Amino acid sequence: MNKLVERVKAEGIVTVLKALISTEKGRDYLLKKLDDLIFRQIVLNNPKGRPHKVQEDKYHMLMSIAVSAFRNIERGYFSRAVANKMIESLVKGALLHSGADAERAFREQYGFYPPSFLTISPGKACNLRCIGCYAASGANLEKLRFDVFERIVREAHDFWGSRFIVISGGEPTIYRDNGKTVFDLYEMHPDMYFLMYTNGTTIDKAMAKRMAELGNITPAISVEGYEKETDERRGKGVFKKVLAAMDNLREFGVPFGISVTVTRLNAPLLMKTEFYEYYFEELGATYAWLFHYMPIGRQITLDLMPTPEQRVALYWKWREMVREKRYFVADFWNSGVVSDGCIAAGRPGGYLYIDWNGYVMPCVFIPYYVSNINEIYANGGNLNDAIVTPFFEKIRRWQHEYGYKFHSTPGNWLMPCMIRDHHAEFRKIADEVGVKPEDENADAAFKDPNYYKGLVEYDNRLKELTEPIWKEVFLEVGKKAAA
Ligand code: SF4
After folding, report:
1. How far apart are CA 206 and CA 98, in angstroms?
2. How far does the centroid of ligand 1 lie from the alpha carbon of residue 352, in Å?
3. Residue identifier of the C-alpha nearest atom 8 of ligand 1
């Protein structure tokens, strides 16, 4: 019965979304209706009994997604045809569980629900050499065979009911194998939606037109700030090419976002409202992803990580942008509340990462593995075998013990991250299962006592800063005691 009620509510949300796309009349009324439906479902119904303030953050995030999308649909930057295709794949997948049969079958076999998506970096090759990029170290010839790449995506669809895949790199638009490109993959899976990280420099009019015709791709274009910051890290002239790419995408109605690596140096810039206004209002971005610099990849240095103080300041800025401006901004360490904490290691509703060598990793930011998808396939296995390794199982147990099992009083999700925020615990698991490093940089980091020490110091300070916020703002400890 509960399931039926949930479905009716989800169908109500899809109906309002479709009406918003098809008509310009009554937009304010429909948005208000959507707001009511989402608030009721997420905050009032609160099916898992999470803290009220956690649910509030989720509601604000969902509304920021809707408002950012419809703002650009109205401006003509996000075509209605593309928006409809997004509803059919991504939104119906998430709300109406188009893959529910697969989810149920997985649960019957393994005893837990499958992850919702995965990130794949099909090739390491890139046309740029950005400072500190994890994809820019070593030789650039490594790549997945196209048949393996496509099989991974197909199995995520068939075994997990997944309708969403993230493609990273390297630069995905220059991936080639056996005459196939990432666009061939997108074309083969019209009922799935793909988010593709790209440096944007290859997106000309023809590529933007192809994305619009396929209708199931959104590019997240990397910037480091404005022109100065972007060109300093990515190379002279790159920002102008990014602007040209955005022009092309707007012309063909392809929704795009930006992806920013936040460092100690550019963090002050990301604390200014003007930064977000520039990308959302002037350039027509639909979303912005903020990734705090993680010391992995080339030229590892802890000195580029935003300080714990900067991280907390960025948390408040993120909250303000989502709540007050309704900009769809996700800060991948500060927005842990909206995903109920860490989503790594194939947790139910979470994800995992597979790189160009086939190494299966818990997360893009954990460059250690115990299994390889090429070997799994060669031995007659399938994608599910990549999830049930001791490494992933121990991380999922940690996530559970840390957060999920205490429905109304989860652990501090302002510091949800295994590898960055709880490094000592991550290392304990990594040592117990005997992980292998993705490359020589990950190996060096693992063996460097200063790396370990620096991250543990960062974690201790972050805990001092965020525990009071977690308790007062999210768990409402003082308020409940006074009541
Ligand atoms: S390990 Fe850290 S970066 Fe990766 S999903 Fe978990 S919280 Fe996010």
Report:
1. 32
2. 10
3. 342
Residue range 349-356: average pLDDT? Answer: 96
Residues 6+ apart with CB under 8 A from 21: 73, 80, 83, 84, 87
Q: Looking at the DSSP assignment, which residues form a beta bridge with residue 101?
A: none
Domain boundaries defined on the chain: 2-77, 368-482
Residue nearest (by alpha carbon) to ligand 1 atom 6: 342
What pLDDT score was predicted for residue 3? 59
Query: The complex's ipTM?
Result: 0.85
Task: Please list, in sequence order, all residues whose beta carbon lies within 8 angstroms of the beta carbon of residue 157, skipping any fewer than 6 positions away.
Answer: 99, 102, 163, 189, 191, 192
Sign of CA dihedral 471, 474, 478, 480: negative
Helix/strand number for the chain, H first, E second:
20, 12
pLDDT digits (tens, 9 = 90+) for 315-352: 999 999 999 999 999 998 999 999 999 999 999 999 99
pLDDT tens per residue across span 374-412? 999 999 999 999 999 999 999 999 999 998 777 778 899
The residues lining ligand 1, judged by C-beta closer than 6 Å to any ligand atom, are: 332, 342-344, 363, 365-366, 416-420
- Give the Å distance between the CA of 420 and the centre of ligand 1: 8
Cβ atoms of residues 323 and 60 within 8 Å: yes
